[in-house]
Amino acid sequence: MRNIMTNDHKNWFHQRYCAVVLLLLVSFSVSGCSLYVMAGKMFFGDPLITCEFTKQTKIDLIEDQKKVLVVCSTPESIRSDYPSLNYDLLEQVTYRLRRENIKVMDTGEVATWLDDNGGVWNDVDELAENFDVDYIIHVDIDEFDYREPNSPNLLRGKAFGHISAYEVNTVDEIKRALEIFDVEYTSEFPSHMPVSIEQESATVFRKKYLDRIADQIGRFFYNYHAGDPI
What we know:
The protein is an alpha/beta fold. The protein has eight helices and eight strands.
């Protein structure tokens, strides 16, 4: 004997279905946005975030397979305290871009050229002339420290600067670099409270903080999933 669903039964199931959906929505709104994120991942997967460079320029460094040069600079006041900071950032940012299949100039070549020129450069066009690349990324850190002011036993990373990118073109047989991207970069970690040196040594914390800075800078130039750790 066949079961025949009447219109009344259909209406009853429809009402129950709507009630369940409404209950879930209310639960999400009460419990916070994390449940929305979990639900979104469940049905649609971890969303891919378009990087800021591509948003502003419509250029995808991975798909377009453009070659990139990365340079880092800091003022003398920072270099005196952290003489290896420029090279450490250069190496770590380059590693992250290369990991995402962006073609990046070898850090050894960049470091050698900088050493031969006194460790500094004054004009981005000079870089364009001396390196065969399509884009130049300039990481300019104006402020950097990982020690809490007036608290020698506490650690908290702070950094501020600008991240710029230039497109290299040849004009009248001379290479020129035109700025196409510029964003302000600011960082504080951890934001809630500093770390005691009894919990973590200054050397370990500094390495961890530099890795974090490199991750944040890298994400300006390649897409990433919303749930990726940083």
